[in-house]
């Protein structure tokens, strides 16, 4: 497999990965739409619905954490390094919740690979209000590659 692949192939692979996990915990992200995912960056959108809220009817912090974790992990899959398709695990996820969102708000989720070394990758992300551009959540995410693990392409077969 080549180290890089087209945007079309990236999106198709990302959709296959998400489909494979739709009955798992990541099912919370079923309504998130991946817009682009290439070159170590990922952009997604979601409209806040009741299922994304807490008892106060605002965006649930757990949904935000899951979205950042997953979207930044997908960004890493498209990063151009020798480990880019190797499964990895989170070793640190830090989120700062700056503003809230309510049902009906449209959100943009961004993620970027800052640096990816032989064993550790550093990512950053944000959730913004699409209409106002306000940053609702900012995040950093550190991942460790699994040694001797199967590639994602093997996992989605």
TrEMBL record:
A molecular-function term among this protein's GO annotations: fatty acyl-CoA hydrolase activity
Thioesterase domain residues: 58-133
InterPro entries named in the record: ACOT13 (IPR039298), HotDog_dom_sf (IPR029069), PAAI_dom (IPR003736), Thioestr_dom (IPR006683)
Major location category of this protein: cytoplasm
UniProt keyword annotation of Translocase present: no
SUPFAM superfamilies in the record: Thioesterase/thiol ester dehydrase-isomerase (SSF54637)
Catalytic activity entry: octanoyl-CoA + H2O = octanoate + CoA + H(+); decanoyl-CoA + H2O = decanoate + CoA + H(+); dodecanoyl-CoA + H2O = dodecanoate + CoA + H(+); a fatty acyl-CoA + H2O = a fatty acid + CoA + H(+)
Record's subcellular location: Cytoplasm, Cytoskeleton, Spindle; Cytoplasm, Cytosol; Mitochondrion; Nucleus
Gene Ontology biological process terms, A to Z: lipid metabolic process
Keyword terms of this UniProt record: Acetylation, Cytoplasm, Cytoskeleton, Hydrolase, Lipid metabolism, Mitochondrion, Nucleus
GO cellular component: cytosol; mitochondrion; nucleus; spindle
Gene3D superfamilies documented for this protein: Hotdog Thioesterase (3.10.129.10)
Subunit structure: Homotetramer. Interacts with PCTP.
NCBIfam families linked: unchar_dom_1
Record family assignment: Belongs to the thioesterase PaaI family.
Protein role: Catalyzes the hydrolysis of acyl-CoAs into free fatty acids and coenzyme A (CoASH), regulating their respective intracellular levels. Has acyl-CoA thioesterase activity towards medium (C12) and long-chain (C18) fatty acyl-CoA substrates. Can also hydrolyze 3-hydroxyphenylacetyl-CoA and 3,4-dihydroxyphenylacetyl-CoA (in vitro). May play a role in controlling adaptive thermogenesis.
Name of this protein: Acyl-coenzyme A thioesterase 13
Species this protein is from: Ignelater luminosus (Cucubano)
């Amino acid at each position: 497999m080549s180290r890089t692949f087209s945007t079309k192939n990236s999106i198709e692979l990302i959709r296959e990965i998400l489909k494979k996990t739709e009955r798992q915990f990541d099912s919370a992200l079923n309504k998130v739409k991946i817009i682009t995912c290439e070159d170590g960056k990922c952009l997604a959108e979601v409209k806040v619905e009741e299922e994304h809220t807490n008892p106060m009817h605002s965006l649930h912090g757990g949904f935000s954490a899951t979205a950042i974790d997953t979207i930044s992990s997908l960004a890493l899959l498209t990063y151009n390094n020798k480990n880019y398709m190797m499964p990895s695990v989170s070793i640190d996820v830090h989120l700062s919740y700056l503003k809230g969102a309510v049902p009906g708000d449209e959100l943009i989720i961004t993620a970027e690979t800052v640096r990816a070394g032989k064993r550790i990758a550093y990512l950053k992300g944000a959730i913004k209000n699409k209409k106002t551009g306000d940053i609702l959540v900012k995040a950093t995410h550190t991942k460790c590659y699994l040694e001797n693990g199967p590639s994602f392409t093997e996992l989605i077969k």
